[in-house]
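Service request form, structural biology core

Requester: graduate student, group of Dr. S.
Request type: structure prediction, single chain
Budget code: on file
Notes: please return the result as structure tokens.

Sequence provided:
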Amino acid sequence: MDRTDCERLDAECKLAGCRARFSLPEGVLYFDGNSLGALPGTTASAIRRTIEDEWGAGLIRSWLDADWFFLARRAGDAIAPLIGASEGEVAVSDSTSVNLFKLAASLLRRGGAGRKVVTEAGNFPTDVYILEGLVDLLDRGHALVRADPARIADEVDEDTALVVLSHVDYRTGALHDMEAIAAHCNALGVPAVWDLCHSAGAVPVELNRWNVDYAVGCTYKFLNAGPGAPAFTYVSRAAIGDYRPAVTGWFSHAEQFRFEDGYRAADSINKCLVGSPPVLSLRAVIDGVATFDGVGMEELAAKSRRLSGLFIELADERLAEHGFALASPRDPARRGSQVSFRHPDAYAVARALIARGLIPDFREPDIVRFGIAPLYVRHVDIWDAVDAIEAVMSDGAWRDFRTDVREAVT
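Core staff response, request fulfilled:
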């Protein structure tokens, strides 16, 4: 395998043309799409039209004339096929953290005999912080349990009130068997909320087919909706009827423009909305999701596996001697769309790579993480990335970066 072979693989790749859908800077190897997706080529003009034509000329008329009022549902319906959901089961609003709070609060408030709130040890910190806060806020005797990620089913039993899991581990990319865990939870009548931040637009997800009732996820990673873009909430049609929102607002009201004194919940996924939609950001969400037009998730995942497999193969050959140890699962069926390595000087290495034009990210305590966004990452990018890593380690450039002081964002 050499760079010419990688060029050949790119020329034969059915998804090669998707890269042209993005505005990517020259001279940069971008492997951080699992933190912030690349800019779609149409997003800037779409937002400019919204500002200048819809807001500037249309003014308040654009709530109807330009469909502002329905953007949260439109964006949700656009995301739905990427996560195996149906029309009317997804809405876009707020942040992932807020949406997780809303779902978890509602499900815990519902009550029941169970007292354990189960999440996995090492889950993304904000998810755990929210659960800690809810246990304290509700003060109903719930206990937060951080289970071994490999033994979730062993911890979920009749004394479990709620399960909250990330489908893909943010550090290592390890992938839960969502279908099996969902079946186990359903058999016990235990509600489960899935965090799809590192799944949506990256790996196949079949929420309907796997009988999953609740999920949240962000849009600014693999869905390419831009920094701080609003997140999505999924509640299945089977569950929405009994779902009682814990955070209520006028956009979740059954007839919000009647301006009633009392609250009546909508009978749809609108139950998961609260306040007015962020129109500019929702335009970016719709444009970001449009970069997947004509692309099947299985086809996308197959390319991801090829790219990450090549990365691991080259790293085994050329980077192990420099102290890199694979942190991600070797089995592609158990790995999300990223490759993570452990290194004792991971922070300094990551900073040196960024200075060299290769952008991964660092995760405590010793992870250098490379996101694989198959819509725009190529085989030659993998080859060039390993070249850059090898060069930084060989010439000692990483030693120019302090490891005892961290930047605000890593």
